[in-house]
Amino acid sequence: MTDTRTWNDGRQDIRIRKDLSVPMRDGTLLAADAYEGNDQKPRPALVALSPYGKELQAMALTMPPQKRPSPLWDGCIEAGDISRVVAEDYVHVIGDLRGSGASEGEHIGNYNAGGVSLGEDAYDFIEWVAEQPWCDGNVGMIGISYFGSMQVIAAAERPPHLKAIFVSGGHYDFYETTYHGGIMWFMPRAAREGRGGDSGWAFTDRTKSRMLEEYSPEKLKTIVDKRLADPDVQAWPNLVHTLNYPKHHEAWFDIITNELDGQWYEERNPVNLATNIDIPTWLQIDQGRGWTIDSTIETFDNLGGPKRLDIGAYPPMQSRPFVEEHDTMFRWYEYWLKGIDNGIMDEPSVNIFVEGSREIVSGSQWPPQAPEHQSFYLRPRGKLSIEPEPMTADYAAPDGFYQAPLTVTDEVQILTWSTPVFDTDTQMMGTGAAHIFAEIDQEDTNFILRMWDVAPGGARQLITTGYLKATHRELDEEKTSPGDPYHPHTRAVPVEPGVINEYILRLYPFAATFHTGHRLVAELSNVEPLVDDHNSLLPPDAFHLPIGRPVSHKIYRDAKHQSRLVLPVTKSVGESEILRR
What is an example of a Pfam family matching this protein (predicted)? Predict the structure, then answer.
């Protein structure tokens, strides 16, 4: 029986319907809590769905929003400000996905539950909510990150009563969520297991590995043995442990054993599903996590209905409980769920916050203004210039660095190149590329490039990043254009040691103005610094798998090997003499 109670948050009485049973088409019951005003009238509903547990989301009633680096920041409290939702006269319905929390069923794999698409469950959940006497039949969705991805997955199923969605901080390309440029990222492990700033999925013994379900023991042993033979995996205790004891961390096991892109990630990829969405959709993302900006833009381009794109300011992690986008979200839903013409549809469809100038640039597409891609060449003595190097490698000898694995050192070697100070404000907006001609003495390495805006006093702001595992250097030539490389990541091709290759890193979308007196600084390494200005704003597990072998790198940047950054300039540096020096 449903437990109904009342909560007073100091401003209002909130009626709470605890442990509602929501039937799915196969008879499985999902558990949900509904929060509403105490006057018992029908209202529009905002639905939040995830495997993080509805009881965890209820902490939004008692915990003030926490920002990184607060130790109380919990990346899984993502369903929104319950009190604010109720005060705006909506019913806030928070549900546990199949196999999680108090819901029935088994959760198999990532975004695939018991052979049932989570989109189908979301469809049934939304339609059930719309039929309840406390809902007026108008349904939207709420929540960031996993909750945001679920909004896209749900909308792609086209439930009739889902009238609009508002997605903040969603993850869309599932391969790129976990493997940046082919380099494994540990943050999804934190969300699933509960580590380093995340409570994790609310699973007990009902989460199942799809790999364990689908493959024979013999085939699985072959896959596991291959992964364990990877020197990078061998050097990371958590990966060795999970591969040997997969039932402890089954969802993470699935990701570890699928290091290449393909059907595993594509069949539930929201970027592809977005072509089925024709309801009004608002997509919001903040700067500083470029891989998420990249797939947010790709999803936006695939949407069919009324749509908005909002790229906000750094830093990259919003509060938990998340509150930053609530004002805009309620304006969106006021128009689409309540029918109030508040002017929001008269505003530009694309709004981009530009770092540096701190202005909003608006338009109808990304980027709002077509850029001209300008090359900034790596030169001797750590310089970046718009002029290429005229000398050959005999005279312009390559830069180099040796990186020992983190099993034996805490020192991260970084090569740095810098422009002179800009003599005019220079705006850049779009994607970019880093062309790195390199020779290594192993079959693989990582290339990690980070681009900074450095002020005269030394303060710096991360602008964008690029990642590429050397064995993933292949390009899809048909999808690649200047300043916009595309790597399929469908196979790994070992590097022949001692051979110079061109590695083209995709620099994730960004928007920044480099002010007069500032410098653009590029840093190249094969592992991230363990601590720095940017990392402190991310959860502790927001780290990439380092190379597990010692590697020597030679970076060529001479007349024949024109290593360079190709950047999207929207206010041209023109003939600036200062950049030629």
Answer: PepX_C
pLDDT of residue 520: 98
Domain shared by 314 and 422, yes or no = no
- Reference 569, options 499, 489, 483, 491; nearest CA is 483
Other beta carbons less than 10 A from residue 172's beta carbon:
29
Selection from 439, 447, 555 nearest residue 497 by Cα: 439
Tokens of 519: 């410098």
DSSP state of 116: E
Q: In which element (H, E) is residue 447 found?
A: strand 446-454
Residue 214 in domain? no
For the residues of 400-430, what is the DSSP string, one character each? Answer: EEEE--TTT------EEEE----SS-EEEEE
User: What's the chain's average pLDDT?
Assistant: 92
- Statement to judge: residues 338 and 445 lie in one domain: no
- Asked if 303 and 377 sit in the same domain, the reply is no
Nearest to residue 93, comparing CAs of 2, 220, 182?
Answer: 2
Range of the domain at 412: 372-580
Place of tokens 């790999």: 211
Q: Coil, strand or helix: which one is 176? A: helix
Classify residue 468 as exposed, middle or buried by CB count within 10 Å of its CB (0-12, 13-18, 19+). buried
Cα dihedral value 196, 202, 204, 206, nearest 10 = -120
Q: DSSP states of 429-443 as a string?
A: EEEEEEEEEEEESSS
Q: Which of 148, 141, 126 is nearest to 75 (CA)?
A: 148
Give the pLDDT confidence of 392-445 residue by residue, as tens digits.
999 999 999 999 999 999 999 999 999 999 999 999 999 999 999 999 999 999
The DSSP result for 311-360, as a single string, is EEPSPS---BS--TTHHHHHHHHHHHTT----SGGGS-SEEEEEBTTTEE
pLDDT confidence band for 205 (50 / 70 / 90): low
Tokens at 154, concatenated: 């749900």
And the tokens for 443? 């079959």
CATH number, domain with residue 466: 2.60.120.260
Whether residue 201 is contained in a domain is answered as yes
> What pLDDT, on the 0 to 100 scale, is given for residue 139?
98
Domain at 29, CATH number: 3.40.50.1820
Residue 356 lies in a domain: no
